[in-house]
């Protein structure tokens, strides 16, 4: 049992805007090359910050784990106890300063990403027509006002 090839065109139920004629192989190839270059750059630009932050956080966590192991080893070793503990305390202090620096540098950027993602999701939901009643419209306005209030409060504390 085989199906026959249907070569009839399909009529879309809505109008579309033809920006360019992509029947030309040269233009089609250039558009594909452009998309191959643009889409990963947008994705990596948006995700790259998160990956860098996660990588630095994992690095700090690993350094704390190594420090914890060295403290246990220093406590079990009775010779040069004071010198070893002094070095470990200095290293612990440096790690705490590093985590404070990470927190100070990345807090605002993470908050900005969370707020922008939440706002974009709420706008896209509103755009799709899911919020069409008066109650949902007022809830959306309350959400927008509270979001702007939180944003202004966080910028005031900076």
From TrEMBL:
How the protein sits in the membrane? Multi-pass membrane protein
Compartmental location = Cell membrane
List UniProt keywords, sorted A-Z: Cell membrane, Membrane, Olfaction, Receptor, Sensory transduction, Transducer, Transmembrane, Transmembrane helix
Query: What GO cellular-component annotations does this UniProt entry give?
Result: plasma membrane
Task: Report the leader peptide range.
Answer: none
What biological process terms from GO does the record include?
sensory perception of smell; signal transduction
Task: Tell me any Pfam family this protein matches.
Answer: 7tm_6
Q: Where are the transmembrane segments?
A: 25-46
**Protein name per UniProt:** Odorant receptor 4-like
**What organism does the UniProt record list as the source?**
Vespula maculifrons
């Amino acid at each position: 049992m085989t199906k026959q090839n249907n070569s009839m065109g399909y009529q879309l139920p809505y109008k579309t805007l033809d920006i360019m004629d992509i029947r030309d192989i040269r233009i089609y190839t250039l558009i594909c090359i452009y998309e191959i270059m643009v889409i990963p750059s947008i994705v990596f630009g948006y995700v790259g910050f998160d990956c860098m932050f996660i990588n630095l956080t994992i690095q700090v966590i690993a350094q704390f784990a190594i420090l914890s192991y060295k403290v246990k080893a220093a406590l079990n070793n009775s010779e040069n106890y004071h010198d070893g503990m002094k070095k470990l305390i200095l290293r612990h202090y440096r790690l705490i300063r590093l985590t404070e620096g990470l927190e100070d540098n990345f807090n605002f950027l993470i908050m900005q990403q969370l707020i922008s993602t939440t706002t974009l999701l709420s706008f896209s939901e509103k755009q799709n027509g899911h919020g069409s009643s008066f109650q949902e419209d007022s809830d959306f306005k309350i959400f927008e006002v509270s979001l702007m209030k939180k944003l202004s409060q966080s910028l005031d504390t900076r």
